[in-house]
Amino acid sequence: MKAIIIEAYGDIEQFKEADLPEPEIAGQEVLVEVHAVAVNPIDWKIRAGYLQDYLPFDMPIVFGWDVSGVVKKVGAQVVDFRVGDRVLARADLKKPGAFAEMVAIEESQLVKKPEKLSFEEAAAIPLAGMTAWQLLFEKANLAAGETVLIHGGAGGIGLFAVQLAKRAGAHVITTASGRNKDFLLALGVDAFIDYRKEDFQSIADGVDVVIDLIGGDVLERSYKVLKQGGRLVSVAEKPDQEKAKRMGITASYLNSKIKLAQLEELAGLAAAGELKVELADVLPFTLEGVKQAHALSETRHVRGKIIVKVK
Fold first, then answer.
1. Theoretical Cys-Cys bridge with 98: which of 44, 103, 178, 208, CB 3.0 to 4.6 Å?
2. Alpha-carbon distance values, 13 to 95, 188, 308 (Å)
């Protein structure tokens, strides 16, 4: 089968096309014919070698772990899936991914794709959607009537976080570039901050929750906008616990997990039109297409999700 791989860490020029054997499946796995794959920031960070100590990989690496497609084979112990089922998944990072025509995925990482969702939309949901859910409701315990500041509201995670927070009855403030203002206001954002022209510290004050998707200076300046007892949660880097304690807030870091009930609900909301899935670009499954997908993600200025269309 055709696959796009890397054999050494580095820039996008490390990608190359390869002819690999079709994956063999274990008893609890299914073989999925890949239709669409999403690119996430963690992908290019792995490719560049930034996470070697935290996430060691054996070469070659096949990227692409947010995937949608059609079941072609099922293992002997698979219970809930049959050949022909349309599915979406957040596959295991430690196994070959879906920049390939076929991928083997554990049954415990799969859900059925709603008919009303395209394969491209379905592939956009898993990591970003589950991360947004867990940030808001498992770590921050966001409640109706509270005010939440979401940094990076136009990104893959941010767009889901903005919509889920609004659905939960929160007052939503977000930072993004000015070109995304009208789009985010249409999604229901209550207050928009153009981070290039405005200082969020002068606008957001006494908020209940901060969701940090940026890190660095943005994280450092976010402690001060929280009220006493407020909650800060980041996926970008681990907050300073001593600083949080001094300022009378709680601060935590999220390493998101695969939770099928969340993924099923998110896919259902999207299929029902209650959760907008924004596709930044849909690129072909070619060597140049995959390179472009990673290059776009690395700019960190993409609205929504980048998709590689395999079939």
1. 103
2. 22, 40, 17
The answer, as to whether pTM is greater than 0.85, is yes
Q: Which of 204, 200, 197, 228 is nearest to 214 (CA)?
A: 200
Pure H helices in the chain: 41-48, 119-123, 126-133, 156-167, 181-186, 216-222, 241-246, 260-271, 287-298
Region of 10 please: left (phi>0), alpha (psi -120 to 50) or beta. left
Pairing of strands 207-212, 191-194: unpaired
- Residue partners of 116: CB distance under 8 A and separation at least 6: 271, 272
The residue segments making up the domain with residue 80 are 2-124+277-309
Our count of domains for the chain comes to 2
- Nearest-angstrom CA–CA distance, 92 and 106: 8
pLDDT, tens digit (0-9, with 9 covering 90-100), for 141-157 = 999 999 999 999 999 99
Looking up residue 134, the CATH number of its domain turns out to be 3.40.50.720
Over the stretch 6-38, which tens digit does the pLDDT of each residue have?
A: 999 999 999 999 999 999 999 999 999 999 999
Half-sphere exposure of residue 50: CA atoms within 13 angstroms, side-chain side: 10
